[in-house]
Amino acid sequence: MTSQPEPAGGNGEGANLAPRDGAELGKAIAAHPDDAEAALTEHEQAMFARSAEAAVERDELHELMFGAGAPHDLVAAFTDLERTP
Predict the structure, then answer these.
(1) CA-based torsion, 74, 76, 80, 82: positive or negative
(2) Is there a domain that residue 85 lies in?
(3) Alpha-carbon dihedral angle through residues 30, 4, 60, 71, given to the nearest 10 degrees
(4) What pLDDT score was predicted for residue 27?
(5) CA atoms within 13 A on the CB side of 32
(6) Neighbouring C-alpha atoms within 13 Å toward the C-beta of 13
(7) Do the domain assignments include residue 24?
(8) Which of 60, 63, 64, 84 is deepest in the core (most CB within 10 A)?
(9) CB within 8 A of 25, min separation 6: which ones?
(10) Residue 84 has what pLDDT?
(11) Do residues 43 and 24 make contact, with C-beta atoms less than 8 angstroms apart?
(12) Per the domain annotation, does 47 fall within a domain?
């Protein structure tokens, strides 16, 4: 459960975040057993920050794989070479 859906060709990080999000939600509910809104607010603030970071990484990977510099930029990323235009 991330704040932004993954486009086709996503990096799958949403699936990796989901278990952590569930565990963190459980902790927030345990910390606020009588106030569901406070628990959700606490949880969502942290979750949105994590998912926004993952979305940026996803977009960067998508650009490497399918952007104007592909496939050369992707190869350079794996080989740690700088691509010259």
Answers:
(1) negative
(2) no
(3) 130
(4) 96
(5) 13
(6) 22
(7) yes
(8) 64
(9) 39, 40, 43, 47
(10) 57
(11) yes
(12) yes
What is the pLDDT tens value at each position of the chain, 85 positions in all?
A: 444 444 545 677 778 888 999 999 999 999 999 999 999 999 999 999 888 888 888 888 889 889 999 999 888 888 876 555 5
Selection from 67, 33, 26, 65 nearest residue 47 by Cα: 26
Q: What is the pTM of this model?
A: 0.59
Q: What confidence score (pLDDT) does residue 2 get?
A: 40
Give residue 20's domain range.
Answer: 13-79
Residues 25 and 75: their CA atoms lie apart, in Å, by 39
What is the number of domains present in the chain? 1
Which structure tokens are listed for 43? 């949880």
